[in-house]
Each structure stands twice: as structure tokens, then as C-alpha cells.
Amino acid sequence: MPEHAPEQEPEQEPEPVAGPTAGPPDPASGRARLRHALLAPTQRQVVVALLLALLGFAVVTQVRDNQVDDSYAGLRQQDLIDVLSGLSGARQRAEAERTRLERLRDDLQSDTSRRQAALQQAETEADALAILGGLVPVTGSGVRIVISEETGRVRLGSLLDVVQELRTVGAEAIAVNGEVRVVAQTSFEEVEGGFLIDGEVLEPPYVIDVIGEPALLSEAISFIDGPARAIRRDGGEVTVEELSSLDIEAVREPVTPEFAEEVPGE
């Protein structure tokens, strides 16, 4: 009998292993992850956020620049020429206005300087006139002249010669016996026992204080055949002392003119 091969049983496919079944994402878990990322971001998330912010700022800036740069893009050539001409005219007007303002500034400064110089000159002249008019006390270098009567009486003419010579060499202030300030309007009169000077009776010795250049004042009295020699012929004696500092306190009251009037605008 023929031999038969043993029958093989058919192979069975392995049964699939059961695993976790995939399903739709849980919305609650997604919100929790988002909340956690916002409340406690990681370093990577912070860096990404900064980069996105910088990128957004750059985009906005570029858009604005493009808008500015394109403001004249749609203009025709003639329109651009007109705009350029308008800008050139505005620049010329601005330069002309600046030139005008600078010229006005220079004129104002010049006028101010002239006014200040005129004011200073007027103040200087007023001070000089006040000194010459005997209206204010003065101090300065000068001489003190003492005239005494030794063997005779000093004549009025000899005293006037002394005053005139002092004025000739530039005496700025003269006072007699510290009481009378001698000026151009001072009156002299010979009276019993002395001289009447501007209404004041003065007796010898006559002390004449003079402010000016000491050497010139002294020479004006002591030169040959000068006032000192005339006083000695009268029987008087003269001494002259040069002083580096001399005070004259005597002043005159200002006199109101009776006939002269100030010219308006002068």
C-alpha cells in the first residue's frame, strides 16, 4: 500500500494584541496646557515671544517708511518740479527773513551801544559840572595855601590873582577857610577886617584848599613875579603844601536861572 504523507494542519494567524484605543483630544487638557504656558512660560517660549515682537515692530516700521517714501511716487514730473520750486522759494524767503532779523539785531545792538555811550558821556559831564559848580564835596590830590598878614593887609587884587592863577593851571575845586566854595560866579569884596566872599566874611589867615595837579598848582603860586611875590609886597606871607589827599566839604546851593531857559529836545 502506498504510503501517505501526514497531513499538516493549516497555520493560524496570530491574534492581534489589544492596545490603547486612540480617541479625540480632551479640550480640558488643552486649556490646562495653555494656562500653564501663560502663567509659567519656559525660557524657549519667552525667547520666541520676544522674536515675534521684534519682527512685528520691524514690519510696522517698514510699512510706515514705505508710505513716507511713496508720498511723491504718484506725482507727475511737472508736479515734482513745482514742489521743488516751492521748497526753493521757501528756503530763499527763510534766508531773507534771517538776514533781515540779523540786520535788525545789529541795528538794535548798535543803537543800544550808542545810547549807553551817550548816557555815560552825559553822566561824566554832569559829574564834572557838579564839581565845577561846587555842588558836591570832592576829594583828591592838591595843595593847601595859607596866606597870613604879617606887616600889612593883603589887597583884594592880590587874592584874586591867586584864584585866577589856580584856575589857569587847571584847579578843579577851590575852597577858602573850609567855608566858601569858590566857583566862576563867586563874588569877592574887601570889607573891614577881611574879605566878603559870597556873602561870608572871612578873616586872615586865609586857608585855600585846591584840588588839582600839586606840582602845577604850587608852581602857579610860587613862580617869579607871581601871586606869592605880590602878597609879600602887601605885607603878607604865603606857604604852599602839596598833599596827596585833600578833602573839600564846602558846597554851594544850586542857583535857579532867572532868564535862561532850556531848549526843548537838547
UniProtKB/TrEMBL annotation:
<feature type="coiled-coil region">
    <location>
        <begin position="84"/>
        <end position="121"/>
    </location>
</feature>
<dbReference type="InterPro" id="IPR010273">
    <property type="entry name" value="DUF881"/>
</dbReference>
<comment type="similarity">
    <text>Belongs to the UPF0749 family.</text>
</comment>
<keyword id="KW-0175">Coiled coil</keyword>
<feature type="region of interest" description="Disordered">
    <location>
        <begin position="1"/>
        <end position="31"/>
    </location>
</feature>
<protein>
    <recommendedName>
        <fullName>DUF881 domain-containing protein</fullName>
    </recommendedName>
</protein>
<dbReference type="Pfam" id="PF05949">
    <property type="entry name" value="DUF881"/>
</dbReference>
